[in-house]
C-alpha cells in the first residue's frame, strides 16, 4: 500500500504488525528508505473456526467485527473477516451553534483470503480487501485570521473571513471548532484491491516467489480540510 490513505482498513483481522526502521530497500524493494510497516493478517486455518466481537463507547459508537475460517477441500482453505464501525454523535462542537456537532463515524471493511496447495511444491495465496468510509471529516480549530496582503489588510477581506467564528487561542477544549452548515462534510472514500502470491519450492533450499497486486483507491468529494465557514 504505497499511500497512507489506503491503510484505513488495514487493521482488520491482524495477527501482528511489524514496524521496520528504514532504509528497507534490501528487504522490500524501492521506495522504502523511510522504513516500512508490515501488516501480517491472520491466515486460513486447517480446521473450522469463527469468532465475533463488539464494543460500545463514547459518542454512541459501536464497533462489530467477525470472521470465519476453515478448509473448503483437502488442499483449499479460506478465511473471511468483516468490520463495521458507527457513531451517532459527533465529537466536535460548534462555537457558533452550540447544538451542532461534527465527527460521526461510518466505516466498513472486508477481507477475504484463500490458500491453495495444488501440489506439495506449489503454494498459491489470493487475497481481496475493500473498505468504505462515509464518516464526517474533522475540522481544524481556527484561532486567528491574518491577511496575506500587508498593504490592504482586512479592507479587501471577504466578510465571511472577517466575521469567522474563532476558537480562543488558549482553550483547553479539543472538541470546540466551527464549520459551515451549508455543506455535507461526509467523506466518500473507498478502496478495493487484491494480491496473488505464488511460491514454488524448486528444491529443499531454493524457492521462487511471485507477488502481484492491484489497488484502486478513490476519494470523491471528500472535504479535507473540512470546516472553516470561509
Describe this entry's structure for a reader.
- The protein is mainly beta.
- It contains two helices and twelve strands, in the order E-H-E-E-E-E-E-E-E-E-H-E-E-E.
- The strands form three sheets. A seven-stranded antiparallel beta sheet has the order 3-4-5-8-9-11-12, with no helix packed on it. The chain has a three-stranded mixed beta sheet with strand order 7-6-10, with no helix packed on it. A two-stranded antiparallel ribbon has the order 1-2.
- A hairpin with a 6-residue loop joins strand 6 and strand 7.
- The longest helix has 4 residues, at 25-28.
- The chain is elongated, with a radius of gyration of 24 Å.
- The two termini are 34 Å apart.
- The model has no long low-confidence stretch (mean pLDDT 87).
Total of helices: 2
Task: State the shape.
Answer: elongated
Helix-strand pattern: EHEEEEEEEEHEEE
If strands are numbered along the chain, what order do they take across the biggest sheet?
A: 3-4-5-8-9-11-12
What is the percent of helical residues? Answer: under 10%
Q: End-to-end span in angstroms?
A: 34 Å
Name the beta content range. over 45%
> What structural class do you assign from the helix and strand content?
mainly beta
Note poorly predicted spans: none
- The total of beta strands comes to 12
- Oligomer type: single chain
Largest sheet: 7 strands, antiparallel
Average per-residue pLDDT, rounded, comes to 87
> What is the radius of gyration computed over CA atoms, rounded to a whole number of angstroms?
24 Å
Amino acid at each position: 500500500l504505497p499511500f497512507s490513505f489506503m491503510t484505513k482498513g488495514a487493521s482488520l483481522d491482524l495477527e501482528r504488525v511489524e514496524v521496520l526502521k528504514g532504509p528497507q530497500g534490501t528487504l522490500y524493494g524501492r521506495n522504502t528508505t523511510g522504513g516500512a510497516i508490515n501488516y501480517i493478517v491472520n491466515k486460513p486455518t486447517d480446521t473450522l473456526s469463527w469468532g465475533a466481537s463488539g464494543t460500545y463507547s463514547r459518542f454512541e459508537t459501536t464497533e462489530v467485527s467477525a470472521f470465519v475460517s476453515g478448509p473448503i477441500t483437502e488442499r483449499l482453505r479460506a478465511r473471511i473477516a468483516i468490520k463495521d464501525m458507527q457513531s451517532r454523535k459527533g465529537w466536535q462542537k460548534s462555537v457558533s451553534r452550540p447544538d451542532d456537532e461534527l465527527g460521526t463515524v461510518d466505516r466498513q471493511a472486508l477481507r477475504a483470503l484463500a490458500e491453495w496447495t495444488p501440489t506439495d511444491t506449489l503454494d498459491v495465496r489470493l487475497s481481496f480487501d475493500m473498505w468504505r468510509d462515509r464518516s464526517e471529516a474533522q475540522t481544524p480549530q481556527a484561532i486567528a485570521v491574518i491577511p496575506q496582503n500587508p498593504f490592504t489588510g482586512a479592507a479587501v477581506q471577504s466578510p465571511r473571513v472577517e466575521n469567522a467564528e474563532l476558537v480562543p487561542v488558549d482553550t483547553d477544549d479539543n472538541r470546540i471548532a466551527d464549520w459551515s452548515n451549508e455543506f455535507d462534510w461526509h467523506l466518500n472514500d473507498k478502496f478495493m484491491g487484491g494480491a496473488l502470491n505464488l511460491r514454488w519450492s524448486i528444491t529443499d533450499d531454493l524457492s521462487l516467489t511471485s507477488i502481484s497486486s492491484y489497488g484502486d483507491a478513490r476519494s470523491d468529494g471528500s472535504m479535507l480540510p473540512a470546516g472553516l465557514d470561509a
